[in-house]
Amino acid sequence: MFFIAGPCVIESESLVLDTFAELQEITNNLGIEYIAKSAFTAPGIEEGLKIL
């Protein structure tokens, strides 16, 4: 079993990293594999890909 989640749109690098870290901690505690996902369109393709 695995869990795919993350913010739908990148608003800032800190928001994405904080969200991914929180979800990683929750899924670790539950014994579930976590796969991070997000769209990179808000800051633009180049900046969004750098953040991801």
Automatic annotation (TrEMBL):
Gene3D superfamilies assigned: Aldolase class I (3.20.20.70)
SUPFAM superfamilies the record matches: Aldolase (SSF51569)
GO MF: transferase activity
Keyword annotations of the record: Transferase
Annotated InterPro entries: Aldolase_TIM, DAHP1/KDSA
Domain (DAHP synthetase I/KDSA) ranges: 2-43
Protein name: DAHP synthetase I/KDSA domain-containing protein
Organism name: Pseudoalteromonas citrea
